[in-house]
Amino acid sequence: MKWKSFFASITLAMLVIAFSTSADKEAKEEDRVKDAGRVITEILNVPDDIPQDLLDKADCVVVFPSVLKAAFIVGASYGRGVMTCRTGQSFNGPWGAPSMMALEGGSFGLQIGGEATDFVLLIMNDRGANGILASKVKLGGDASVAAGPVGRSASAETDASMRAEILSYSRARGAFAGVSLEGSTIRPDNDANERIYGQKMSARDIVLRHETSPPPAAAQLLSTLNARTPQHRQ
Question: By the 8 A CB rule, do 98 and 39 touch?
Fold first, then answer.
């Protein structure tokens, strides 16, 4: 009986640990989504941010809060964020449920030491959106990427912004600028998607097929984008 009681206690302890670990991971993913909402809100509220006409033309937005350069120096990945797209068959609806995303590799000149940098990517067409949501994509290889122009009144009609599938921006030490992420890779973080949505779903199902509702943690992210760029302009 003592052995049965002992094993029962061990089993109960393991279940408690497993549940606590799962809950902690889910909370971490929720914090990631909330951080993405905070970052996009702060960036879109500075005087010289993303040109409005570019923001209105974007099909999707990807936000990576607090990416650490130190992780890339040693070859590890440390960029974790979210991707949301406009709903509707032609990306003409409100912004929808986000997929968790991962940024890996690359070297980013604006980072200093181990300082954290926020990144925002505009996905400018459906080819870029479908590619990123399907598998790992190398920026500058599988998908064209360019440093985005800055300033609400800045002209978006540059060769880079006209041709690129993805326009990228960074914010470090309060400075906001276009930055090239060429050479890095971006992919869906499906394990994180399962944790935050409670079931296995592909990033494409979440973002393009709209098979789930946005989590509460995405409220600021989506409300900011719906307020600042409610209509998709070609």
Answer: no
